[in-house]
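for the recovery benchmark. tokens below, seq after
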């Protein structure tokens, strides 16, 4: 039986999201596998931990926004030795809820296709041209992707893969995020910007469609597989994320990006689109 580590962060008020996640995961997530939950939290007790030996609570102090999300790879690597005991590692945002059975065939990378990592298309961007993707456009940032480049915009809240590939992913992004911090730089969309850089530079991954990251109000013929519960139903998100630190682009870079946006749009409107990869 394959062993899967599910990584989950719920410090502070995010702990309110944990019971719904656990209930849905126990019902639907990889039932043919042995799934262990590694929960990084500051609460002294988690729902279900007394009855379920596969729930592992790791103390994590709360941090102001956006550091809990930006520094998640550093957080995960604190238990690297434990994670090496698993075949696969997946991260799920606190507000994920599984709505249907998620099988190995649906979620795991496929070795016959030389896949090692798994990413999910972001529902706000899967249909847009790449010059509208909100990649980080700061050339000084380690998450930088030039205007007009990039194939997919993936969400930051669900990703995973084979153990060694995922740990390499964590080490690479933790190092690059720290290099940014040393220079006073924060990527536009924090960990999601860095994850998109990784997908851009490591293109041989399994790409799941946006039904695995189903936001409220998203209209599609696809059935919802993983629902993203609105956080505002559980706590005041605006107060939690008030006045976050961010990096301002110099006027010269802003002008250059505006120019390249127009160039990319013009080019892509006048040449046939290259077919995108088939989404699953």
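predicted aa per position
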């Amino acid at each position: 039986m394959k062993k899967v580590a599910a990584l989950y962060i719920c410090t502070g008020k995010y702990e309110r999201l944990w019971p719904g996640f656990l209930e849905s995961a126990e019902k639907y997530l990889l039932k043919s596998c042995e799934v262990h939950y590694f929960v990084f939290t500051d609460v002294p007790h988690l729902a279900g931990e007394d009855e379920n030996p596969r729930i592992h609570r790791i103390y994590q102090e709360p941090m102001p926004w956006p550091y809990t999300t930006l520094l998640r790879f550093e957080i995960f690597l604190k238990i690297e030795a434990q994670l090496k005991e698993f075949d696969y590692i997946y991260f799920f945002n606190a507000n994920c809820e599984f709505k249907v059975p998620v099988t190995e065939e649906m979620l795991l990378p496929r070795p016959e296709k030389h896949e090692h990592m798994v990413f999910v298309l972001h529902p706000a961007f899967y249909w847009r041209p790449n010059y509208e993707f909100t990649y980080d456009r700061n050339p000084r940032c380690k998450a930088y992707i030039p205007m007009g480049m990039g194939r997919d915009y993936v969400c930051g809240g669900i990703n995973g893969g084979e153990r060694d590939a995922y740990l390499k992913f964590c080490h690479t992004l933790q190092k690059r995020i720290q290099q940014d911090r040393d220079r006073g730089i924060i990527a536009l969309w924090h960990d999601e910007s860095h994850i998109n850089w990784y997908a851009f530079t490591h293109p041989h991954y399994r790409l799941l469609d946006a039904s695995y990251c189903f936001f409220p109000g998203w209209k599609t013929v696809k059935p919802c597989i993983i629902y993203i519960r609105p956080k505002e139903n559980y706590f005041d998100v605006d107060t939690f994320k008030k006045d976050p630190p961010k990096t301002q682009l110099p006027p010269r870079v802003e002008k250059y990006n505006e120019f390249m946006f127009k160039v990319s749009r013009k080019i892509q409107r006048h040449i046939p689109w290259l077919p995108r990869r088939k989404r699953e």
